[in-house]
């Protein structure tokens, strides 16, 4: 914008041409307008982003920072601020086995939800990323669980996981298996809670990934298919590297959400805060119990900060790892974007050839079919799509 | 390659090959039964828990012995009446509508403004601030509930809807989302042209950015509405049972002495209906909006 701004002085030449009368007034008003316009250009971008930063600072960042202050005091829900105790609250929390239990539960439930969720979302997105009939219908069907609120999901799934007459134990019973103690067993309860999260979020994430997949040029797939890459190969070599940023985005949001699970474990057993023996008490649930049932704001704030550090730490690790994984696969697929002929390099290793070997082969492929074009049953089709021949 | 006459033969063969692949379920043609089988399985997985809760919610407790109950009973209205007696359902519904609408309006407005600024305007510190937005997206603001609660108590807002609304007036996700959308959708030339024609910054925003942003605003609005609608922890903390949102009212249904699962599930179904209606009415726009936004890029 700033670069183009000098040009809006276009009115200037026109005034110098037709400026018999108010010679002194016009340039002045112009400069004022110009200055105003320049101020507009300079200040507006800040004015547009300011509301976000101000409000976010006030109700987002400030409370988070103030949590640190609260955590340094004895602070009761009803009695308010007490004595300054330094890091005693942190020491108490770090020595609290219920805290570590809640961290273990949170991580366990997080892994049980994030990993299946991202993989499931990728698969669903790939299934939807086809020339389907009734596209919108299928997309809506995938998104349907998202409109069921976590509270409702928790209520529904708590009933389905009910140990006596729940849907899942009924199903297990009907195929002759023993009922599972969904609410008492540690792992089973984690799976149950994770399944609530997965049911609600997988389709949502799939649509985000689908949106990215749809932006991949179709001719990339067509060329790859011509070069003999099957659906799985195309998915791994073209789709995944192309939607890399979106995958990272999904992973990171899943992490941030997954580490703060509250509604599901809270409602899985409404009487206790996370099970009779805290077998599925997550850290946010423990934080809630500490603050609003035990009324210890100080220790609860310490929990909040420790969880905050954990989330940020895992987020950073997550980002680095997913970036490395993604870039590890990228160089191969990125090259073909430039020259279409080079695409063959990315897809041809199908035949097991290493890259230096594959390059000359790739250079040959465009020529070879036309050279043998007189014979329809040329070498390339036979080599590249045996599966199609079977199905067709 | 040797004779020019042979050159056309290649494209023809190429097209034929693609067509053949298409019929066989490749990338250009219609997918096969396997795909639709998977999709139907997904549909059942998405829909059955809801249907199941309706079936159980409309039945007496006898249905609970059945393995896969499919047919609803006739008790839904009776159970619904019990729900309406047990919790202030209509008040909760109204509260949820107010809270979600105000938050949606605010988030969409401020996100579009900031997103446009980040996507299309040049200013010193833009990239740094954008990194700030992305970083704050990772900030678990939920963890600030204790000072937020202290603040709300200080100003006497506990139990008031304002206490639920204020903390979510802006979201980093919204800014990021609008920025990602607008960066591709508005050609720079369009903005430059508007500015050359003497439009002020805000009128450029209004006449160039907002029309282009409308689909994304609708999507962001829908998602924000749902986010506000589904929020649970903070309303649970700051509101009391006498003035609940739908979610906290639902949890009251589940806690204490109402252990009748038929009633609880009826409540879950009733609370889901508003969003289901929204989904049926706006789901198509929502999805096509997401897709159009992605393809335009």
Automatic annotation (TrEMBL), chain A:
Residues 1-29, 357-392 are annotated as: Disordered. InterPro entries: ABC_transporter_permease, MetI-like, MetI-like_sf. Its main location: membrane. GO terms for cellular component: plasma membrane. Residues 12-21 have a biased composition (Polar residues). One of its GO terms (biological process) is transmembrane transport. Residues 362-384 have a biased composition (Low complexity). CDD domains: TM_PBP2. The chain crosses the membrane at residues 46-69, 103-128, 140-161, 242-262, 302-321. Residues 103-318 form the ABC transmembrane type-1 domain. Belongs to the binding-protein-dependent transport system permease family. This is ABC transporter permease subunit. It comes from Naasia lichenicola.
UniProtKB/TrEMBL annotation, chain B:
Residues 93-282 form the ABC transmembrane type-1 domain. The keyword Cell membrane applies. Keywords: Cell membrane, Membrane, Transmembrane, Transmembrane helix, Transport. InterPro entries: MetI-like (IPR000515), MetI-like_sf (IPR035906). The chain crosses the membrane at residues 33-51, 97-116, 128-150, 162-183, 261-282. It holds the Pfam family BPD_transp_1. One of its GO terms (biological process) is transmembrane transport. It comes from the Bacteria. PROSITE patterns: ABC_TM1 (PS50928). This is Carbohydrate ABC transporter permease. The lineage of its organism: Bacteria, Bacillati, Actinomycetota, Actinomycetes, Micrococcales.
């Amino acid at each position: 914008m700033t670069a183009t701004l000098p040009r809006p002085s276009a009115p200037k030449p026109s005034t110098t041409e037709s400026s018999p009368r108010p010679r002194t007034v016009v340039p002045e008003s112009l400069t004022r307008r110009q200055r105003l316009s320049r101020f507009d250009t300079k200040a507006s971008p800040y004015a547009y982003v300011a509301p976000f930063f101000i409000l976010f600072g006030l109700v987002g960042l400030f409370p988070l920072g103030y949590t640190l202050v609260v955590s340094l005091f004895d602070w009761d829900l009803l009695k308010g601020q007490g004595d300054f105790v330094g890091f005693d609250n942190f020491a108490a929390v770090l020595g609290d086995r219920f805290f570590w239990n809640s961290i273990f539960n949170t991580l366990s439930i997080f892994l049980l939800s994030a990993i299946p969720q991202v993989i499931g979302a990728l698969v669903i997105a790939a299934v939807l990323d086809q020339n389907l009939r009734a596209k919108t219908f299928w997309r809506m069907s995938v998104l349907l669980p998202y409109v069921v609120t976590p509270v409702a999901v928790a209520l529904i799934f708590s009933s389905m996981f009910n140990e006596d007459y729940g849907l899942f134990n009924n199903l297990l019973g009907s195929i002759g298996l023993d009922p599972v103690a969904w609410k008492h067993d540690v792992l089973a309860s984690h799976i149950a809670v994770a399944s609530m999260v997965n049911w609600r979020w997988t389709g949502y994430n799939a649509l985000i990934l689908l949106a990215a997949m749809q932006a991949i040029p179709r001719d990339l797939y067509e060329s790859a298919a011509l070069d003999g890459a099957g659906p799985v190969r195309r998915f791994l070599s073209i789709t995944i590297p192309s939607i890399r940023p979106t995958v990272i985005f999904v992973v990171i949001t899943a992490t941030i959400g997954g580490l703060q699970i509250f509604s599901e474990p809270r409602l899985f057993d409404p009487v206790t805060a996370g099970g009779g023996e805290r077998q599925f008490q997550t850290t946010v649930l423990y934080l809630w119990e500490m603050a609003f049932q035990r009324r210890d704001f100080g220790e609860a704030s310490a929990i909040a900060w420790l969880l905050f550090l954990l989330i940020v730490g895992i987020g950073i690790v997550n980002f680095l790892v997913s970036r490395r994984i993604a870039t590890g696969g990228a160089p191969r697929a990125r090259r073909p974007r430039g020259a279409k002929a080079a695409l063959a390099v990315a897809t041809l290793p199908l035949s097991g050839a290493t890259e230096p070997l594959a390059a000359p082969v790739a250079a040959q492929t465009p020529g070879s079919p036309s050279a043998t074009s007189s014979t329809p049953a040329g070498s390339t089709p036979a080599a590249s799509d045996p599966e199609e021949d079977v199905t067709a | 390659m040797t004779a020019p006459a042979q050159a056309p033969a290649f494209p023809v063969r190429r097209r034929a090959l693609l067509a053949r692949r298409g019929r066989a379920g490749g990338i250009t043609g219609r997918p096969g039964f396997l795909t639709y089988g998977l999709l139907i399985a997904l549909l059942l997985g998405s829909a059955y828990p809801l249907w199941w809760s309706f079936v159980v919610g409309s039945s007496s407790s006898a249905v609970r012995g059945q393995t896969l109950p499919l047919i609803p009973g006739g008790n839904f209205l009776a159970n619904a009446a019990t729900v309406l007696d047990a919790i202030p359902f209509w008040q909760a519904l109204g509260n949820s509508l107010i809270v979600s609408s105000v938050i949606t309006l605010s988030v969409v407005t401020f996100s579009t403004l900031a997103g446009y600024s980040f996507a299309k305007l040049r200013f010193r510190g833009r990239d740094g601030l954008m990194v700030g937005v992305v970083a704050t997206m990772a900030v678990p603001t939920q963890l600030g509930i204790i000072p937020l609660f202290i603040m709300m108590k200080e100003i006497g807002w506990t139990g008031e809807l304002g206490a639920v609304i204020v903390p979510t007036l802006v979201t980093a996700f919204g800014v990021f989302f609008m920025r990602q959308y607008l960066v591709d959708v508005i050609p720079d030339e369009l903005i430059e042209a508007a500015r050359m024609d003497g439009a002020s910054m805000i009128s450029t925003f209004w006449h160039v950015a907002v029309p282009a942003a409308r689909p994304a605003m609708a999507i962001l609005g829908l998602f924000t509405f749902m986010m506000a609608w589904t929020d649970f922890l903070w309303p649970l903390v700051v509101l009391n049972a006498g003035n609940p949102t739908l979610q906290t009212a639902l949890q009251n249904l589940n806690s204490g002495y109402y252990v009748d699962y038929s009633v609880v599930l009826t409540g879950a179904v009733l609370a889901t209906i508003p969003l289901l209606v929204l989904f049926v009415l706006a789901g198509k726009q929502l999805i096509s909006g997401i897709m159009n936004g992605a393809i335009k890029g």
